[in-house]
Amino acid sequence: MSAPPLKKPVVTEREARQVAEAAREQDWRKPSFAKELFLGRFRLDLIHPHPLPTEEAVRRGEQFLAKLRVFSETKIDGALIEREARIPDEVIDGLRELGALGMKIDPKYGGLGLTQVYYNKALALVGSASPAVGVLLSAHQSIGVPQPLKMFGTPEQKQRFLPRCATTAISAFLLTEPDVGSDPARLATSAVPDGEDYVLDGVKLWTTNGVVADLLVVMARVPQSEGHPGGITAFVVESDSPGITVENRNAFMGLRGIENGVTRFHRVRVPAANRIGPEGSGLKIALTTLNTGRLSLPASCVAAGKWSLKIAREWSAAREQWGKPIARHEAVGAKISFIAATTFALEAVLDLSSQMADEDRNDIRIEGALAKLFASEMGWRIADELVQIRGGRGFETADSLRARGERAVPAEQLLRDLRINRIFEGSTEIMHLLIAREAVDAHLSVAGDLIDPDKSLQDKARAGANAGVFYAKWLPKLVAGPGQLPSSYKEFRHGGTDLGAHLRFVERHARKLARSTFYAMSRWQGRMETKQSFLGRIVDIGAELFAMSAACVRAELLRSRGEHGREAYQLADAFCRQSRLRVDELFTRLWANTDDTDGVIVKAVMAGGHEWLEEGVVDPSGDGPWIADTTPGPSERENVHRPIG
């Protein structure tokens, strides 16, 4: 007899945190450069010399990139995709023939077996032709069926599904619901055991690729019953299964060609053989998949930076104001310098994180998250600066520019397309909290029981003793280090440019960051988790220090290989100088800020105390609920699922 359907969960804040905590990877079995950085230990040896791909990986990767470049230049019409808000079927068929659906899939299952480094290069290349095409390939392989099965699937599941994913079948990942975003404890979609099957009911929102997908990874809650531990669980689901309806194809301000929709499940039967991992492991699977899956977003930002630099350079040389090209005006030149230096750093962060993922020597959960956070924020700033450099033409659409006889530069489209990266796969605010939790893991491991209200006095006493031992050894090491010695990192000094000075800055400020974190934990203790603005600044400092480290290491790699070494050193130096100013400001704002004042204003606003300020405008919003109804049941809408081929 099957278990009863689940009711929509009502979850307290504490319960939600417990669910998120249970889904974390608890152990650190491998070293982590970023984790050490947050603890005040600058482990340059973990990233320098810069890790490199094998010759075979390079050969295979470059061979595919050459084919993909020809395809992107001759078969992908980005302007057409933007106008029609759809990727032509023949483009997707062409990608299938190239093997692009199987870039990350092992050759024994029909894939290309590219490394993470070359997979990201491919996404950047094809995404520069059309960001929508890049998203389709990324959603299919970074978080869709291939990656979870690669990491957690059974041999039988891999044999059944991966050959299809490598050649023909498009996949999608379904976690978000209309009333559930980054708080998965409230997940309402149910998977009720019934014999050898599970019966799915629920509604999923923002299902990237969902409109055209052949295979779905679905996260659903299994109720506890005899023989079933229950919990949020992952399933591979055939998209044409009876009871699945794609009720809407969503439209967005950017990425207009993506096939993103709303999918309803009504009594959909899924074989138990399609369950990925044990019951209750769905969130852990999702988070582990995202450790590397998030690197696809920095790839799109690197592509945007490279293109923005090209357009800024060409336009600023052609456009004259007051008797000289605008690039020679300091106000514009500063923007070009920012774009160039930041693009160099973004590529350094992406390639370093990706190569570390390929080598699997290090735990990169923090590095991958920092790469996503830093790239999405800086990529957006790059696009904004490009629009500003272009002036009125930056605000004008490419079609309008073309119609009046000028070069059709889609700068405003870039701005629209990149905006979602600050929300996709963990918003900036959620990334701040996620990274902060990992950054303070060592502290919570030894002293967490001291601030846990549920722990007994005996537990707290034991934690106090452990914490005393840990901090007696750790704190003295934060006082001094190689960052105070002018001779440190002297191998990073070439051609009059001393990148070693920037690495010394990183080392000193890593220790300062650790001291600041410790002081905050001592000051706020159990309230630390509520200080989200403070934690965000801590994480942003760590991101800048990581990016500075990656930029210096990449510059030295290029110099040692005779590949634009002098220029790379210049770019790394410029980026680090810009980054140091941001770091100094962030440290100041740790303690000098408006957080308390902001809290007072928020309370007043939410209590209606400032409704008078809203007078004098018309609200153009339409009618309807803030959140759509997700009551389980049969669909009353037309199925807009559109399988390709």
TrEMBL record:
A Gene Ontology BP annotation from the UniProt entry: fatty acid beta-oxidation using acyl-CoA dehydrogenase
Obligatory cofactor(s): FAD
Domain Acyl-CoA oxidase/dehydrogenase middle: 172-268
Gene3D superfamilies: Acyl-CoA dehydrogenase/oxidase, N-terminal domain, Butyryl-CoA Dehydrogenase, subunit A, domain 2, Butyryl-CoA Dehydrogenase, subunit A, domain 3
Residue stretches making up the Acyl-CoA dehydrogenase/oxidase N-terminal domain: 62-167
Pfam families given in the database record: Acyl-CoA_dh_1, Acyl-CoA_dh_M, Acyl-CoA_dh_N
Name of the protein this chain belongs to: Acyl-CoA dehydrogenase
